[in-house]
Amino acid sequence: MSFGYSFKRLYRKALGVEPRRLLHSGWFDCEYYASQLMAERRRLSPRALAHHYLREGGFQGLDPCADFDSDWYLATYADVAASGTNPLLHFVAHGAAEGRLPRHGAVPTKPLAISPTQHRVQQLWGGFAHLALAELAQAPKDFRACYARAGWLYARGDYAAALQLLEPFTIIGEAHAVSLAKCFIRLRRWDELQSLVEEKNLRAQVKRSRALLGVSAARNSQRLEHLNQLMASHGLSGWSLADASEPLRLTNLAAGPCQGVTNGPLVSVIMPVYNNAATLPAAARSVLEQTWQNLELIIVDDGSTDASAAKAREIVQQDSRVRFLTQANSGAYAARNRAMEQAHGEWVTVHDGDDISHPQKLERQLEPVLTEPGRVASISSWVRVDESVCPIGPWGLGEAMTEANLSSLLIKRKALATTGMWDEVNAAADTEFLWRLEHHYGHRAIIHVHLAVPLALALTSADSLTQAKATHAQTVLFGARRLYREAARWWHRHSQFKPVLNQPRPFPCPLGLLRDYHSPDVVVAADFSQFDAPFAMQLEALTQSYRGKTLCFFHWPDFHQWSSAPIADGVFRLCQQHGIHWAHSRLTLNAQILVLMDESLWEYPLTESVHLPALVQVITADGRDCQAAESIRNYFQCGGVEYAGAARAE
Q: Of 12, 185, 307, 513, which alpha carbon lies 20 to 30 A from 195's?
């Protein structure tokens, strides 16, 4: 592996390739952009205008065209802002293919032109991994192809194989350097991590993540010192050990010396817990030791089967600011909603039962919302760590080490009357709620404080990163979370961007995100990004043909089309009218009938499908048996290509 780095090469790239890429993207309107500049700069050449936007304008709120909002893009996608990447450059290179939006209220846009490698990467994360991986493997010297394969392997926990693909290449960018570091962390290869972090030629490459990577590389006895140095560099106090006789671990962290804030509005901190007995005392301590002292902590036990309730009662006895509620197991969002209804604070926020907050977290999040007019909420960042407080970072390979901590959203309580509460699903409701808040108040009403500094530490275990879960964070690219987001966006658009969540839910939901559901009788598989009049008639006819039976839809993109194309609005409308939910990969249902709307889809099966072990009949839209009915039935009974292969091997 080479740590070599050519500044001249990257400088030429910045001056040449990137401006050309923007000018040819279809998203850079020179006349529009020039109109936002001072008079003396409006006559710059197109290349100079693009270079100005790349270097300055994109970070100053200037827009490259009427359909792209630079400020909104950075505010909405914290990972992009944390990486320091120009917003339009990110959108053109990655965002459009990932289904990100160019502005508030837009719909995902098909990339105008992408390379064959980019197309394979899109298919890799868009449901066709087995096909894309085979194609990408044909280019062993193409860094982009190897990097994509490494990202897939890393997300599935094969860190050694991911590293093997990355090591032969000279490091030329931050994403590459951070990716190597994350592999070293997972493999506990501390000496190589230390060498990478200390390499002088790479300091500019990892400048945003270097401090946290230094914390990871530090020996256990020195890790707290490195972490506190990072905090001090941003004007923050440090942590200490709750018990100096015990080693550093997440549950042994306590607030270090810092000045308290006694004046200010009451803040209600909601802490849902489910089987968090081991971490609850430390999590609660990190709240009660906040420098912002005018707070109440409401712990809600969500039907725990361990000693969480007993631990909570002990905490209540120790501090009069703590209240304790219990409920039958209903999920974290239901626990939040119940506690919010009983909160007394002018401001409210949420704190998970296994997270540890920095002692100044509330103080720093409150500062801008109390002093800047128009602010209704603030959010901060966190980093995922192991029990020894070693920063690990998010599941994605090339991302920054820190992430937006969506559960840290601190909001003016009266705003909940405008937006409604959280959707009581199993996962993914934080993002939908944040979008809803933004629709009502605008993205500038929500501020992200200390973007690159973690004000909370989130415990990450091997179990929490498993890729087998139907609702894992990876499914935001294809699967349950993506379907949920698209359905929510459909509702937001068709409520004139003033959505208020009441019961029942006003948009169809993936079944894997529901607390309770009955397995449908019939699964309808199709490419639901297409919705013309004949297709609409076919779907309406199906709902009539199977009256008395429950249907659900399974999205199977056409391999030859844009695999990231969103579900058509008309499909969501039909689902909502007929009470149809969505099936998705890694979900097991007992349906015995599968309707395949287009038999040609079988030519390119998805890597993972909904799992239908009881499937009996595979038919077309007009009721005929599919030509490949037996093969298709076996495929769905196994849950996809990968699992069908495993079943044959056994």
A: 12
